[in-house]
Structure formats: structure tokens, C-alpha cells
Amino acid sequence: MRWNSVGWLFLAPTLLILFVFGVVPFLYVLVIGFTQWNSFAANPDMQFAGVENFRRLVFDDQFLYSLWLTLKFAFFAVVSEIVLGYFLAQLFMRDFPGKGLFRTIHTLPLVIAPIAVGATWRLLTVPGLGPLPYYLNRWFGYEFNISRYIDQAFFTTVVMDVWHWTPLVTLTLLAALSSLPKEPFEQAQIDGANRFQIFWHITLPLLKPAILATVFIRMMDALRTVDEVWMLTGGGPGAATRYIGLHIWRVVFPKTDYGYGSAMSLITLYLTIVMCWMLYAGLVARRDLKRAD
Amino acid sequence: MRHFRKKASGSLMAIVFWTLASLITLLPIYWMFAVSAKSRVQLFGSPSFVISSFFTENYTITLSDPAFQRYMINSIVIATSNALLVTALALLATYALSRYKLPGKENLFFWTITNRMAPPAVFLLPLFLLYTQVFVVADVRLFDTRIGLILLYCVFNLPFAIWTLRGVIDGIPKELDEAAFVDGANTWQVLTQVILPLAKPGLAVTGILTWVFAWNEYLFAATLTSVHARTITTGLAEFVTVTGTNWGRMAATAMLTLVPALLVLGLAQRHIVAGLTFGAVKE
User: Residue limits of the ABC transmembrane type-1 domain (chain B) (predicted)?
Assistant: First the structure.
């Protein structure tokens, strides 16, 4: 080991950038969250307001609704992606001609800009242009209009997210499946276990760390989804797809309610951390319980 | 023979299944392409996936639009500068984390990733205020500048790069550095002549994925720029918010936004998943 000062020197530019553009904004939002500051208000100057913003948040129906929607969206999207991704990963476990090509196609949505994903789905679903409303109506007599029906708008955002991110789950679980030891499966077959028993008692426990890690990563991303939904529905109809990121943007920019928006940002950040921590704790605790048996 | 036949029918089923799955993946993108290749008149009426004659005007008008050209150049400059800066700084940082005995370095390593996990919407307002009002030196603001976005994108790309490069640098035997030091090389020479050549493949992948993340970013680009530094993603979003419903041109712009993604798919396909899971998953 050589001079530490050289080591710190190498780290300095990275730490400086992360501090100025990561930590400073965080500290700033922390300060603004405790003030009353709205450039359209009677008194447009920043003034200390204590916890008033946070008190307001607890009774803010719009905020709570947006939070509930975000959780609902993340739940439906992540659960569908995990189930579908696991199924697809299993199908990729065997060899067949053209596997490489199919895998490449499957990976494609992962590298597309979220805003372009939103554009794609808008072109698919916009009434009068998109094939989805047209054929659903023509073949099934189903009226599909995401700018009118709130449930359709909500589930279209979920389907879009599933289309965009299931490949990540597939490939993560595929990597995990490929690295599982062979012996437990062979032993179980000798003992006469059926497919479901093998899945439930062997595959699932062995795969649990990988599944939870994937849920963790997908959950964080789903909770902060903005771009695709903004492009697809703009948060509408009404507030039906106004997820928390879109809601914060609305409070902060068009309404210029800086103090209140900052408090909202802080709560959102806090809830995200708590949720991730719970997920992580759940993962560790379960494993410890198993070991204690 | 029976075993062989069973295997063959299994393969056939797999091919049929994956062909359908691939159709689901590709159809939305193909539809976008079809819209971009049709005139307003051709788009009128029932949606047809057939492109009878390629209507090039959506592309020629888009490509010759000065605003679009500016967005495109901005995106290329910002993504490329960010990728180079991030790769260089991350190489230095990971080398320090890997080879030096720095107190608290593992905590520091984990702390970096929190910058990437935080919801971006939380940082919109403070960054907007900092860029317009606080980081001001004699009339020069970071707001609506390329350098502003280049530096900001480091906040989420640096942690990613450090996390992916950590394994690469740790994988280079320390004995190689030691041998070079014994031969009288200084730290800089070790870094550029021993580490750099060996880490090149890892650096390339990190750089390519960083480039894509910067290219794809929308929320900050939309909030922290107004005219001069607008990127291609914000240009695409403007079709919904400002220009209204010129679907053909919106589709053409989106197709052009997609081009780098397709290149990356060819260049770094095997590493995309490692990149998106902070290096937690390796294939």
C-alpha cells in the first residue's frame, strides 16, 4: 500500500462532483422543505415555516392519491414482470436453434430511451391512429380509449412497463438459474419429487436472493417512473396516471410551490428508502429464520 | 429415436413461442416505423401495417430542421463528453479504491450508489434553483448549458461506472503493479501503461453504457435547459406538449432517437444486464 494522499487525490474529482451535484441539492431541498416559498404567493419571498408543509401533506388528498397510484403501479408492474420473467428465463434454459437471435430481440427494449418507449406506446394507443383501439373495437367490440377511461390508462402504463422491463428480469433470472448447482435437482428426481415440488422446495429457495435483488432494482425504478408515462398519458386522464414524480413536477413548476414541493420530495425520498430497507430487511430476516430452524 | 423426436418437437415449440414473443417486442417498434414512413393521408383511415410506398418527407423535414439538428448535436456532444469524463474519473476512483488503504473506503463505495437510486424528481427543484440562481459567476449560469448537463449526468453515471469497474480493476493482479514499481515506474505510468491496457474491454463497455444512459435521459434535460442545450429526448417530448399531433414527424424523430440503442445492442449486448443491475448480475 502506497501513499494514501495519492489515493485521495484520485478520488477527489469524483467526490467533488458527487458532493456539488448530489449532496448540495439534497441539503438545499431539505432546507426549502421547511419554508414557505411560492413566487406566485402574496409574499413571494422564502420564509421559515417549520413543519407546516409536512402537516399539510398528511391531509393532501391529491398527494396521497398520487402516492397510492404509484404503489399500485409498481406492485402490478413488478409482480407481472417477475412472474413473466421467470417463465421466460426457464424457457431460455434449454437449447434450440435461433436462441441467440431471440435473446437479442428480447434485450432490445432495455436500451431504448424511456421517452421513446412512451412515444411508441402513444402511437399504438392513440384513438384514430393506433392499431390497438382500432382492432380491439373491430374484433371484440371493445371501446379502448386511454384518454377517456382511467382504468384503461392505468393498465396501459403497467403493460408498457412490462413490455419495457420484463427482459431485465428474464436475463437476471436466467443468469441466476444457469449458476444453480445441479446436485439438489438430480437428488430430488431420484427421490421421486414432482415438478411442482422441485420448483417449490428447491428452485425457489435457491433462487430467492436473485429474485429479491431483482424485485429491489425493479421496485426502485418503478417508483420513480416519469418519462414513459409523461409521454403516453401526460398523467391523465384527470389524475389517473399522475404518479409521484409527475405530481412533484406539477407542484414545483407550473404551480411554483417550492416549499411544499420540497417537503413532498423529502417524504417521497424517505418512503422510497423505507420501502427498499424493508425489502432488504425482509430478505435478510427470512434467511436468518431459515438458518435457525 | 423417440428421444430425438421429442427433443425436435420441443425445439419447434420453443421456436414458435419465441417467434410470437419477438413479435410482441418488435410490433410496437415496427408500427412506429410504419407511421414514420407514411404521409398524413396514408395514416387516415384504418391502421395498416403495410408500407405501400416509403414516404421520406418525415425524415427529410426532420433532418433538415435546424432545431432538430441542434438537439442532435447537443445530445451527441453531451453523451460523448459525459462518457469520456465518467470513464476517466471512474478509472482513477476505482484504482484508488482497489489499491490504496483509505479509511472508510468501503462505506464510500456503497454511498456512491445511493446517488443513483434516489428518485430524480426529488432533485428537479433544487437543481433548477442552483442552476438558475446559485451557481452563477458574473452572469454565467449553468442553466441551459451543455456543461451543466455533462456534470449533472456524472451524479448517476459515476456510481454505475465505479460499481462496474471495481470488479475489473480488482481482477488485475496487484503483482503486476508491484513489478512495475520495482522497475522504477511512477504511479501515473503504472496507471496508463499497466492498468489501462488490461482494463480496456471493461472501460469500453462502461463507456458505451454510460453514453446510452446520458443519451436516453429526459427529465433533467427538460428541466435544466430551455433553448441552447436542449437534447433529442426533449425534442421528442415537445411533439406531445408543443407541436401537437404531427404523428409522422414524431415517429421519425423517435426512430432517429432509437438508432444508438440499436448500435449498442450489437456492440455490448452481453453487458447490458450487468450494467442495469449495478454489476450485481454477470452473464
Answer: 72-268
